[in-house]
Design goal:
Two copies of one chain form a homodimer. With 330 residues, the first copy, chain A, is α/β, with parallel strands linked by helices. The first copy, chain A, contains twelve helices and twelve strands. The structure holds a DNA duplex (16 and 16 nucleotides). Chains A, B: GO terms for molecular function: DNA binding.
DNA sequence: ATGAAAGCGCTAACAA
DNA sequence: TTGTTAGCGCTTTCAT
């Protein structure tokens, strides 16, 4: 049962007080070079590492960041977790993953827990949450980074910049003389809005066409919902010749149904996904999509948190640029 | 700035000592019913929740379990993380995700950190680690669950039971009169063995054929490696008519190359994957594969850890059964 | 059945 | 430039 080495042990070995050891580590007050050297030697010799539990208790701040998302098993969030973890590793911070299963009660419970446990920070993709649900966390002074399509009040935020990429997608589609644009959207979130849908509608107008209400269907972010949505659209008397999807999973479902119905993609209908999930390039035809890079979101989240740890006080919104990826489906 | 409610606050409100509050929570010594009721009422009224940092400092045990894997972004491990997290949630335990990027130094560093931070447990899929790398962790009394193909010494372990499923795959392939069996294996791990390869070799013999050395190629678990491996196999004068892959990602790469070379799957060559990753059913032809269920691994890991927390002392090995999934590629 | 109090290892006043 | 020391909130031994 290997004994734990404490600061007191290091202090004794270096012939100083434990306060000095602490200050050598934190750099929060000047330490004479020779003292510092002695302490560092003792640390190395004894193999000391700080007990972050004790530090947390003392400072009232843990070294944990909570990543709160609807589903970590979703490739986008999995990649986000991986990147965030690697970026935060150097700061000695661990990432705790929390699944909300898209349920508001879970989202709220997790947020409350982050406050109770005095987490160092929270990175969250809210699904049913409203801006006021964040009051407690921000009041507790816990840095929060929200990754969402819409503004969420006085928190750091990462928002996608999809206008350009979506415009390129529309350009490609309309250049192929397609005018009957449709969308299979994801579920409406708590804010009631749907930025992807609204953006597409706005842009469609600019391209001299439109996104008529009857060509918008809605479902979960699942393959089944994608298939159902596509079937529904094909039933319309005003049949679309281009279908935009809320994400790639939906698009894959649409692809399934198209094959089943004998609808040729992209011959009869052009299909555009969203996110560029790993499998977007695996299906046939390969999915033309709007890529939203999880790695960059993770890096931005880590950077925003890092700035907050350093005590910077202004809330920032970082925009992450989505990229149009032209493949075979449109 | 909302004040934190401590046990002392609860004790004061209930007219008892903080020790009693602690014992009401832990049940480690009898408390009079009316005392208990008073304490519970105070807890509810004040909205008290224990400070797990303080508890950890005192007990020398945190409420964190580390999930140490080569890559959380890998769908298998992402699903494992999700399940583990949900199963452990009820025990008040958080899951910290740790990426090793398949590097031994990272694996060792993470294991060492788990000891230093007195984690409540570790769930690990070792990649380059040897059994003796676990000595420190077990000596520290930290429950370890290893998910691997081979035995790893005195730890709880989850091992796949793939014999039956692999036999079924071979049955299907040989029933179609295929005899020239090949494999695109993953990288050789630190133990030097490759159970999937060895199992296939053994079974092939039983089916009256073999897995000749020249029909075994090896690479990383990537799409590129799969493509390269397949190309190499198609170059052999003794050309295989059935190719087994170390995992589904490799199989997808093989599929890419087959299409490029004009090799018909399954007409010319049958292709069998491994794991049943999400995209196995997305590619065309859909992948015939040996499904290894991450959910069950996660549940088993949580169960094993739970037993250890309860103080059960024997090391157990849980076998998780893989399942043959027949689709179009073989 | 309950309470008093020590102390886990660290940080940050306050002193010198 | 460095040391002394008081806690952070909890668990648990020792008393009662």
């Amino acid at each position: 049962m290997q004994e734990r080495v404490t600061m007191a042990d290091v202090a004794r070995a270096a012939g100083v007080s434990s306060a000095t050891v602490s200050y050598v580590l934190s750099g929060k007050r000047p330490v004479a070079p020779e003292t510092r050297a002695a302490v560092e030697a003792a640390i190395a010799e004894l193999g000391f590492t700080v007990n972050s539990t004790a530090r947390s208790l003392r400072t009232g701040r843990s070294s944990l960041v909570a990543l709160i998302v609807p589903d970590i098993a979703n490739p986008f969030f999995a990649q986000l977790a991986a990147t965030l973890q690697e970026e935060l590793r150097g700061l000695g911070i661990h990432v705790v993953v929390c699944n909300t299963r898209a349920r508001r009660d879970e989202e709220r419970a997790l947020l409350a827990e982050a406050v109770q446990q005095r987490f160092a920070g929270v990175v969250i993709t809210p699904f049913r949450l409203l801006p006021r649900d964040f009051e407690a966390v921000t009041r507790a002074g816990i840095p929060v980074v929200v990754s969402a399509d819409v503004p969420f009040g006085p928190v750091d935020q990462i928002m996608p910049e999809t206008r350009t990429a979506t415009r390129q997608a529309l350009e490609r589609v309309t250049a192929a003389r397609r005018r009957r644009i449709a969308m299979i959207a994801g579920p409406r979130d708590a804010t009631g809005g749907d930025p992807r849908l609204e953006l597409l509608r706005t842009l469609a107008l600019q391209f001299g066409t439109s996104l008529p209400r009857e060509l918008v269907v809605r479902g979960e972010h699942t393959r089944e919902a994608g298939a159902a949505g596509f079937a529904e659209l094909m039933d319309r008397r005003y049949r679309p010749d281009a279908v935009f999807c809320g994400n790639d999973v939906i698009a894959v479902g649409a692809l399934d149904k198209a094959r089943e119905l004998g609808v040729d993609i992209p011959g009869d209908v052009a299909l555009v996904g969203h996110d560029d999930a790993v499998f977007a390039s695996l299906v046939r035809p390969q999915l033309t999509t709007v890529r939203y890079p999880a790695e960059e979101v993770g890096r931005a989240a880590a950077r925003l948190l890092g700035e907050r740890f350093d005590g910077r006080g202004v809330h920032r919104t970082v925009r992450v640029r989505a990229e149009f990826v032209a493949r075979a489906s449109a």
